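Hi F.,

I've been meaning to write this up properly since the lab meeting, where we talked about keeping a consistent format for the predictions we share between groups. The idea is simple: the sequence comes first, exactly as it goes in, then the structure tokens exactly as they come out, then a line or two of notes. No screenshots and no reformatting. I'm using this chain as the first example so we have something concrete to point to.
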Amino acid sequence: MSTIETPFTKADFQSDAETRWCPGCGDYAILAAVQGFMPELGIPPENVVFVSGIGCAGRFSYYMDTYGMHGIHGRGPALATGLATARDDLSIWVVTGDGDALSIGGNHLIHAMRRNVPVKILLFNNQIYGLTKGQVSPTSERGKVTKSTPFGSSDAPFNPVSLALGADATFVARTIDKDKKHMPEVLRAAAAHPGTALVEIYQNCPVFNDGAFTALTDKDHAALNQIRLVDGEPVVWGPDDARRAVVHGADGDLEVVALADADESRIVVHDARRENPALAFALSRLSSHPDGPTPIGVFRDVSRPVYQADVPPPAAPSAQDLHGLLHAGDTWTVA
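Output, unedited:
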């Protein structure tokens, strides 16, 4: 692999704020990956903005030596949309959590993706409310016992990747906090995408939901459960003695079968560039919870007009116009 020439280093993107998450929190690994990857873009830190909301992930913007905005709960995509509309010269990133993005912020999230606003959204998913001490979140599995659901949650969880594909997001991906190689690869692909990029990052919360993704990260289980999606490649994975494949079933659904028993003509070949998101959506539904075969990687990467890219910025009003407006009385007549 060739070395990427860049005038910047990781240190250029590290703020002097003390990093404060719980020991062992997956946020540390994500922060290190982002700080290590940002120099590759060749963009000066002063042209980069990190927008965050409420939750443990909300601290992220303080630890990046870039511009940052710490907004109120769930409003990160809305703030980023306004910023992207006014400043098309900036690289804008939203850092959010499963509670922040999918509960009070759900409306803002889906409309940012629908509009294809040129922002990158990193959604940390630990399937729990961490900052407020362990309540059930919109991605917690059914039956989850927490302080807010002592008898087990009766809610069906959101699948963030399925949600993004349903909102017709043009770039949708998933990665894992502990995978130091895979995460930067996904971040590079997201950064190269001109429109909205949604990256779900499975992130361990060692205090309130430890081991939620063990089936995907433990060395004895990861090879069996991690489905690495590679554009143009058959969806086949697993250790040599237990190779498996995703195939098109007779009824049109996708099925997981032993590779030795698979009809080669029915094996799914991943196509992230396919305009119709149906196949990517079906892949996202292979496992209802990350304790079984779960796809990671880029699900979809397609082109669509970027929000307001072809709309010229409005002319700045003159001081005389503003003075007239402010002193026009209590009502205005718009022609």
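Notes:
The chain has a mean pLDDT of 93.
The two ends are 60 Å apart (CA to CA).

If this format works for you, I'll send the rest the same way.

G.
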